[in-house]
TrEMBL record:
Keywords annotated in UniProt: Cell membrane, Glycosyltransferase, Membrane, Transferase, Transmembrane, Transmembrane helix
Membrane spanning stretches: 227-248, 260-285
Pfam families in the record: Glycos_transf_2 (PF00535)
KW Glycosyltransferase (keyword) present: yes
Assigned GO CC terms: plasma membrane
PANTHER family, alphabetized: PROPHAGE BACTOPRENOL GLUCOSYL TRANSFERASE HOMOLOG, UNDECAPRENYL-PHOSPHATE 4-DEOXY-4-FORMAMIDO-L-ARABINOSE TRANSFERASE-RELATED
Protein's name according to its UniProt entry: Glycosyltransferase
Location(s), subcellular: Cell membrane
Amino acid sequence: MLSIVIPVHNEAEVIPTLLNRLTQVTRTLDGPVELLFVDDGSRDNSVALLLQARRRHPGIRVLQLSRNFGKEAAVSAGLQHARGEAVILMDADLQDPPERIPDMLAAWRKGADVVLMKRRTRAGESWLKRLTAHLFYRLINRISDAPIPVDTGDFRLMSRRTVDALNRLPERNRYLKGMFAWVGMPTVTLEFDRDPRLAGRTKWNYLKLMHLAMEGITSFSTRPLRLALVLGLLAAGTGGLFGVWEVLKALIFGIDTPGYASMIAMITFLSGVQLLCLGLLGEYVGRIYMETKQRPVFIVAEDSDDSAHRHLPQL
Ligand code: UDP
Ligand code: MG
């Protein structure tokens, strides 16, 4: 069985087209297909549309989370509930073309555990988004141990053993791109042209993206902490030398009082550095705090497959 996991958050506008194009592709596949939609707390009629479609296509399964947990949690929920031997992850907005699914399956049948879809083009994305994405990948790959392949999103196929491995990672701060890279496994990369979003608006803004970037950096590396240490050593070193120089100067040439401006500059600069490092430390402490709470990453309110069982006639 093949599972296709699709996180959905207020995507009513695209769902009809999505279902159309998806079923067109899945019809041509041999073997059963599970279309696992994870509703991430949609407030429009996405769920109604999906449940309605389910009556015609029994392969559709709708997992409803109890509220909006964010895409990373929705995908995690999908991966944990998917039953397929192979699992494909794609966005609901048709930026990831379902027509490539047969190619992905072919690569998997040839033995790949992970079939990565690499964007050749990113239509409909501003140069600013492209630039920031580029810089982010450069930065994160410099500091993290398992490099994250450039220009790949979540659109990918994973074998059962890869999904199982992923499901065993217990962290609450789920930075999926990094987790995928960390799990590894034999990988094949295919290229595709990323289309612009079909309708509706992106759920990301720069604030959210920055949060994700911070998440990515701090959850996969403690190197920023070492950077803080180096910064502290440098500041202490120069401060010490400067102190010696000042004392010698005072002994040789006598004391001259002016120096107010330089003193203020030093104080503000150094206290800025201290606060920065403190904040950095706090970022990691906060992360530890979140992890120690051991809360689940998501809550499933309803699984359409379970509720189907509930309505079976009692024997
Ligand atoms: N999504 C989600 N929960 C959220 C935000 C987004 O499940 O809180 C889903 C959304 O429905 C879509 C996918 O994640 O299927 C990607 O979202 P979007 O297209 O807004 O992101 P972008 O492609 O702009 O990075
Ligand atoms: Mg999108």
